Amino acid sequence: MMEELHSLDPRRQELLEARFTGVGVAKGSGQNESSNQSLCSVGSLSDKELETPEKKVNDQRARKRKADPFDSSQGEIGHKISDYFEFAGGSGPGTSPARGIPPVVRSSPQHSLSNPPVTVSMLALWPFSHTFISQHSAPLLFLPRFLSALVQQGSPSSLSSANTEHSSCSLKPATLHMLHKATQSDLTIEKLTAMENNKNSDLEKKEGRIDDLLRANCDLRRQIDEQQRMLERYKERLNKCVTMSKKLLIEKSKQEKMACRDKSMQDRLRLGHFTTVRHGASFTEQWTDGYAFQNLIKQQERINSQREDIERQRKLLAKRKPPSMAQTPPPSLEQNKRKSKTNGTESEAYAFFFFFFFLIVSGLMSVLFLHPFSILYNLFLCLCRLSQAEYHEQEEIFKLRLGHLKKEEAEIQAELERLERVRNLHIRELKRIHNEDNSQFKDHPTLNDRYLLLHLLGRGGFSEVYKAFDLTEQRYVAVKIHQLNKNWRDEKKENYHKHACREYRIHKELDHPRIVKLYDYFSLDTDSFCTVLEYCEGNDLDFYLKQHKLMSEKEGRSIIMQIVNALKYLNEIRPPIIHYDLKPGNILLVNGTACGEIKITDFGLSKIMDDDSYNSVDGMELTSQGAGTYWYLPPECFVVGKEPPKISNKVDVWSVGVIFYQCLYGRKPFGHNQSQQDILQENTILKATDVQFPPKPVVTPEAKAFIRRCLVYRKEDRIDVHQLASDPFLMPHIRKSVASSGTSGMAMASTSSSSNSSASN
Question: Where, if anywhere, are coiled coils annotated (predicted)?
Answer without folding.
Answer: 402-436
